[in-house]
Design brief:
With 167 residues, the protein is α+β, with helices and mostly antiparallel strands. The chain contains 4 helices and 4 strands. It has a domain of 109 residues: 60s Ribosomal Protein L30, Chain: A, CATH 3.30.1330.
Length: 167
């Protein structure tokens, strides 16, 4: 092979190497972008699951409107993720005795579970915990503070690493 032919062959080999490195880099960038997108989607779905369900004073029934809509959205997420397990926590405002508020918090969490089970989800996917008045979101002796504290919340206990969006 002549010197000129060798330079041409070397040039072709370098260009092939550059193109291969560029292809590998582009593939890594696509994979990283897909990973970031999946993480962002999982975070958005987790945020949706963290929306609280509010309750009226001394009540444990699910309110029509926003609370029913939030539960229906959570239902779709749970249907799309059969491995997802959730702890449902019931909370109360500070009015009432400790014993009464623990029972009321339990009834609130149970009402949320019954709503979801009523749409075909397995009851064993949900753990019920009442915190009564023990974990307020907002301190204060105002109706606004009390209203924020009368709630039910979701805590993911299993299957939450990669959550599929609701269909």
């Amino acid at each position: 092979m002549s010197d000129r032919q060798q330079r041409i062959a070397d040039s072709i080999a370098r260009e092939r190497q550059r193109l291969e490195e560029e292809r590998v880099r582009a593939e890594r960038e696509r994979e990283e972008a897909a990973r970031r997108e999946a993480e962002a989607l999982t975070a958005r779905v987790r945020d949706l699951l963290s929306n609280v369900i509010n309750f009226d004073f001394d009540r444990s029934n699910i309110r029509a409107g926003r609370d029913t809509e939030v539960l229906e959205m959570k239902l779709r997420i749970l249907q799309a993720n059969p491995a997802l397990r959730v702890q449902i926590t019931g909370h109360c405002d500070e009015r009432g005795s400790d014993e009464y508020n623990m029972a009321l918090g339990n009834r609130r969490a149970e009402a949320i579970r019954a709503f979801l089970v009523g749409f075909g989800l397995a009851e064993n996917r949900f753990e019920i915990v009442s915190f009564g008045e023990g974990r307020p979101l907002q301190q204060g002796d105002t109706e606004a503070a009390w209203a924020r504290n009368r709630r039910g919340q979701f805590v993911i206990t299993a299957g939450g690493d990669a959550i599929n969006p609701a269909r």
